């Protein structure tokens, strides 16, 4: 650590102190009577307007790991790394109608998590438990990956040693994050997201102006990338990779808003119009993501090398060589703070799932709102400690592998969560069977994917990526496909077949605890309740319909 850049360190620490103060002060922002209620602590009072929601969702979905991993993939693999851009473009039209209906039914019925909705919609505690466990398992490695972004910054600043002293900045950062999240709940990341995104946009604008000028222009940048990847077709995706690329982008788009932290940001919005405006405005982040991805090609043109074998350090090293220390410090702070915002939201979302769908469902059914908030706060601390421990004591590659699995497994909740918002035709027993079938197929396909080096030699037998060779199914082709799409298709097929069978056998499929009017309710509607408890009976205005359904 003797070569730590003091200027960069001072700037990062100062900006970190600023957001720390903001994190604790957020408890008084849009102050509630009490934060000891999940609607207040875990959803910010369900009152965020358009701007706050835009920054919150942007800070939630476009993470620090995105900032370092996407350019690293472009640097190492070329065009394939650009998949993150099209998937964040197509996602918003896909989820536009889904999140609007989810917001309405959740506000009428007091749902805090997607598992709350599934339990009420299908009358299935089992399916709700599977959705909750899937969400927690998929989110945990995602939190750990945010630490990978901070680690990359620390390495470039000179914290390249080993042992407790080298990891101390990382531990302090997450300890402080844990404390102000415990204190302020979702208000903390919502307030800090303003700073995070301002720094991110400032860094990107400066980077796309300054770095191309230093390395010889955009023409030289693309020429350098084409030369590096000339053996595999240059910067154009080869024909054999196009199916895998398209299915990965489409599958990732379907998965993104199924993650519990995405749902948390959606449910914190004050009304449906806020979400409609945000679904139109959030693609601005995708434009920024396109420039972030191109940082990988800029690094090739600049001759930047990663630190050791850690490819995630390529962007910090590019900034280190391209900017004066004071601005490199700002850019590093942008990445570090960019890790804290999504990590806070993810831990809150995981804590909400544990509290509502495991603790209250199976441990203490009579838990009141204060106990729920208390349990959620403790759970969020445990989640963050687990994320730090995963990075300190386990190979970070393990977290990356788990995050890869996370996208496939979260897709298995699509039938019950997303399709369930439009139809209750699916039998609850069939949803469970489809989830099991999708999980088995998805995990088997991921297990069968080897990781290869640039020469084609296998360096890892299993869980080596997201491109499943169709040749393993006996097909005579070099095409690959994203396992998430195949496993989801199997899931849906099983759901349809088992539903037909169970309905033919007249097997009871539970009671729908929602009403048709719930899905289109506006904030002004009589069925809307401020800070409601989950309802066992119909809300005001829909009593007759609910009784008829029962």
Automatic annotation (TrEMBL):
GO cellular component labels: plasma membrane
InterPro entries: Na/Glc_symporter_sf, Na/solute_symporter, Sodium:Solute_Symporter
Principal cellular location given in the protein's record: membrane
Membrane topology summary: Multi-pass membrane protein
Segment forming the signal sequence: none
CDD domains to which the protein is assigned, alphabetical: SLC5sbd
Top-level taxon in the UniProt lineage: Bacteria
Swiss-Prot/TrEMBL keywords: Membrane, Transmembrane, Transmembrane helix, Transport
Family assignment from sequence similarity: Belongs to the sodium:solute symporter (SSF) (TC 2.A.21) family.
Protein name in UniProt: SSS family solute:Na+ symporter
